[in-house]
Amino acid sequence: MGTKPTYEELEKKVSELQKEVVKLMQVEKALRESERMLNETQRLTKVGGWEYHVGEKRTKWTNEVYRIYGISREAHDPKNFKQDILFYAPEDREKIDRAFQAAVDKGEPYDLELRFISATGEHLWVRTIGNPVLKNGKVEKVVGNLMDITERKRADEMLLAETLKFERYFENIPLMAYNVSFDGRIADCNTVAVKTLGYDSKAELLGEPAISTLYAPESQKKAKQIFEKWKKGKRIKNEELKVLTKQCNVIDVLLNVDTVFDQKGTPIYSISTHLDITERKRAYEGSQRLQAQLRQAQKMEAITTLTGGIAHDYNNLLSVIIDNLFMAIEQAEPGSAQTDFLNEANRASLKIRDLTHELMALSTGGAPGTAVDSLRELLRSASDAIPAGSEISQCASISQDLWPVFYDPLKMRTVFRNVINNAVEAMPDGGTLSIRAENLRFEDADWVPGFPLKPGEYVHISIRDLGVGIPEEYLNKIFDPYFSTKAMGVQKGVGLGLATAYSIVQKHEGYIAIDSSPGAGTTVSIYLPAEPVEGEGEAQPAEGVEPATPSSNRRVLVMDDEEMLRKLSRQMLKRLGYEAKSVKNGAEAIDAYQKQKESGEPFDMVILDLTIKDGMGGEQTIRELLKIDPHVKAIVSSGYSNDPVIADFRAYGFRGTIPKPYQEKDLEKALKRILKTNDGLWLN
């Protein structure tokens, strides 16, 4: 027998045993805690673990697997795997059975999402995963997971339903709709967008850069700014942009953008819609144009009566002043200070005459009807307004087949001269003046409410400078009489040039508009209705025709209601070698012409003032003279160059015209040109 342990040894052994027990208890506690945490994790994640021992044909489950199946440990037979398969929905049983047998027999893993019915009758979706474990090349066991994915599947189904719902909405919304990706490309679009933009199919748009494909050049900068905003998650509301069709037509739209984010809150793509507001905008702009035209018409009407009357009286007075200055210059000593003073006064008088003509044109605008012809040569000659030696270059593009226009050459020359003068003055340091003329066919489809032109054929003239430009606040006043952005004075004018141009173009049933901005120059656009032409127009007299020298016995009758003008005309005619007689009204002219004809020494020519105060004017007088002498040679004189009688003088029986105020050389030219023709017709 051995020696009995001492008390101290026993006590030490007990102490060691106690420590071991404590360790075992701690391990057991840790295992229980680990198992608890595992079970809790599995419960929260709805993921259970299982394994199947091939040799034992026995399964082992974690708690979460039992929960998914809806059975207790006691109710489960771990050796009846076939019974476990029966919990799967009938349509999926064969699939899980085949996959499990392949894992056991062939070592093939599987990962399936299947429908499942628990013991409590709850319909679930599960994900079952099986991974074979091999030993010595044979499957020893299969371990796996069983995951309850019902909530995810339902969420997927809801998402799918919402996606289908959105797709139906996206496709059927009566707006242009686009899905734009984060990199700025078109990911999707609806049929409305395809058709509105003139494309054949979505394929032409998908994958293309949205900004350069969808938007007109003038809107692309704004579109880029909007793109940066939506990438930051900002909502875009009712931004006005211009969209470009495949055929390069422009459509005005209102853009709205909503951003779609991923789970982390990062924008991934946008849903954009375009509301076509082209017609709405055209209607609004048309209304604005109509109001502007009405205001302009009211402004013009307010000044026409006053300017017309004043200008007519000025013409008569200027005729006397200009002629007396001419005679004074002729009698003054050449090179003297007196001659210089008289020449300066004469130049000022001629400027006043030009201003008077502007006022006359402004009052009634001039009337078309003197010529049906192309504007090519008139436009070419208008460029003479560019001062010689200036730093201004000219670029002209005038169509060779420019349609003819029914117009008054004198008045239309005034329009071009005034516009070009303004362009030249806008470029004091030099620049380029561009003149362009082309044919324009304005279709019914192009018309918008309020646009001042009706559909038809027009000649479009644009005159563009690269000058200082006009501030926006002045653009609605630019055609107002006496409005000018330049300083007042002899050199700069008084602001009648564009007002006169406006009035003349309006009378020609045309339209004039200005587009300008500071620093970018100004473009004046003129639209005149084109005229169909059959054959060639009337022949025009050659410039510089040598006039006939009048005989000393040529007799001229002058009718004018102003005594000063009658006296002046007699003096001019006497110096030119004619015999002259003057009368103050139509009745006296008829009587004088009748008596002279009966005497056997008829008047060779008659000059009739168109407008006689308190008496018979030129139009009525010529009718009566034609009764007396169908071959009477008469010239009509007036300061109203826009009057229909002046515009179409031959239709009223006249052989020519002479505008007031006129100088001696103008009178001489008019008389000699009539005398030059054998038949007495003035080929004007």
Structure description:
- The structure is a single chain.
- This protein is α+β, with helices and mostly antiparallel strands and 684 residues long.
- The protein folds into five domains: 35 residues; 108 residues, Beta-Lactamase, CATH 3.30.450; 104 residues, PAS domain (Beta-Lactamase, 2-Layer Sandwich); 211 residues, Histidine kinase-like ATPase, C-terminal domain (Heat Shock Protein 90, 2-Layer Sandwich); 122 residues, Rossmann fold, CATH 3.40.50.2300.
- Helix content is 43%, strand content 23%.
- The chain has 19 helices and 22 strands.
- The termini are far apart.
- The C terminus is likely disordered.
Q: What is the CATH domain class of the largest domain?
A: Alpha Beta
- Which fold name is given in CATH as the topology of the largest domain? Heat Shock Protein 90
* Class of secondary structure makeup: alpha+beta
Helical amount: 40-55%
How many distinct helices? 19
Strands in their spatial order, largest beta sheet: 2-1-5-4-3
CATH homologous superfamily assignment of the largest domain:
Histidine kinase-like ATPase, C-terminal domain
- What's the average pLDDT? 78
Low-confidence stretches: 487-494, 534-551, 677-684
If you compute it from the alpha carbons, what radius of gyration comes out, rounded to the nearest whole angstrom? 50 Å
Please supply descriptive tags for the structure shown above:
single chain; 684 residues; alpha+beta; Beta-Lactamase; five-stranded antiparallel β-sheet; 19 helices; 23% strand
Structure, briefly:
This protein is α+β, with helices and mostly antiparallel strands and 684 residues long. It contains 19 helices and 22 strands. The chain folds into five domains: 35 residues; 108 residues, PAS domain (Beta-Lactamase, 2-Layer Sandwich); 104 residues, 2-Layer Sandwich (Beta-Lactamase), CATH 3.30.450.20; 211 residues, Histidine kinase-like ATPase, C-terminal domain (Heat Shock Protein 90, 2-Layer Sandwich), CATH 3.30.565.10; 122 residues, Response regulator (Rossmann fold, 3-Layer(aba) Sandwich).
